[in-house]
Amino acid sequence: MIVLGIESSCDETSVAVIKNEKLLSNLIASQDFHKKYGGVVPELSSRAHLQMVQPLVKQALEESKISINDVDLIAATAGPGLIGALLVGLTYAKGLAYSLKKEFVPVNHIEGHIFSPFLMDEKPEFPMLCLVVSGGHTLLLLVKSYTQIVKLGSTVDDAAGEAFDKVSKMIGLGYPGGPMIQKFAESGDPNSIEFPIAQLKGKFDFSFSGLKTAVLRHLESNYDDFQIPEHDLPNLAASFQNAVVKALSQKVVKAIKTFDIKSLSLVGGVAANRAIRNSFVEISNKYKKKLVIPDLEYCGDNAAMIALRGLQVYNSGKRFSFSENAFPALPEDLFESYQ
Ligand code: KG4
Ligand code: ZN
């Protein structure tokens, strides 16, 4: 079974080919030009996807040494994401599938992230405790099977990636914030400034807006007009990052102690963060759980995870018509709730 995957939910156009779960190619075109606007400009993103999708499909097929006729199934991200951006990839996929009489599967982007550890050689085992940390979502999930996912907790305000991006902007490191904060944090002392970690009623929920405000208050009381001397940036970045790591790890440990899990995983754009990855390695060693974190290439948005999820959904027996539409937000009923 050969699957062509297309991802266009935000600022990465990506096209991948998998054959029976084995990855043949995964091309990612990042729209770096958004940097100068300090964030993703939706209309510009849609236009860039429009320019990139066709050449990437051509290149992915060439790299995989197959022709479009060899493809059995076309999978594309349907949501959540920027609606104009999603429509480009999804409509392209539907058009291609319709004209070539191929099977078509719309894929939920977050499900793509959740099952991205299965792209690795070492596969996770169910039940898998999965932390999804991306620009738009922070979710702690108990993944029981390919089709049964229980939501243990989520953020009550900002997503983890959003906190990285906002704090980065605040301290003048620009967009995207995660990689910049990580870079500066490397030469800083994570314990130099004590930022708060939210204690919430919801056992497995997260909150990052208080942390963001604490950083703001710290800047207001220590610097005139936000003029932060360059040599203070590493300690600021490291202390903020440390607070995020602690907030995430606390809930993960709590969940490990509560549920009988077989494996642990960390997915989404923020899963690229070295400090968070290291903390997961420590947790998995301490509690003797199998840990599978995707390689960096599969943490950020990529079509390999979309192709793989498309295949899993197809194999579960689900079939879709071409009337399937793009959707901007995470559907309420995607996960079972935990009580
Ligand atoms: O999953 P993703 O690529 O896009 C969404 O679906 O949101 O995640 C993007 C987020 C951005 O907020 C970015 O700042 C963050 O991932 N990110 C990181 C790192 N690399 C990317 N956050 C922390 N450390 C990193 N190294
Ligand atoms: Zn994503």
The H-and-E topology, N to C, reads as EEEHEHEHEEEHHHHEHEHE
Separation of the first and last Cα atoms = 39 Å
Figure out the total of helices.
9
**What fold name goes in the CATH topology slot of the largest domain?**
Nucleotidyltransferase, domain 5
The CATH class of the largest domain is identified as: Alpha Beta
- What's the name of the CATH homologous superfamily of the largest domain? ATPase, nucleotide binding domain
What is the helix content?
A: 25-40%
Strand tally is 11
Which architecture name of the largest domain does CATH use?
2-Layer Sandwich
Brief write-up:
This protein has 339 residues and is α/β, with parallel strands linked by helices. Helices cover 39% and strands 19% of the residues. It is built from nine helices and eleven strands.
Give the topology, please.
Layout: E1 2-7, E2 12-19, E3 22-30, H1 42-63, E4 73-79, H2 83-100, E5 103-108, H3 109-114, E6 128-133, E7 138-143, E8 149-154, H4 160-170, H5 177-185, H6 209-222, H7 233-258, E9 263-267, H8 274-286, E10 290-292, H9 303-315, E11 336-337
The structure holds 5'-O-[(R)-(carboxyoxy)(hydroxy)phosphoryl]adenosine and zinc ion.
5'-O-[(R)-(carboxyoxy)(hydroxy)phosphoryl]adenosine binds at residues 10, 134-136, 161, 164-165, 176-179, 182, 268-270, 272-273, 300-301.
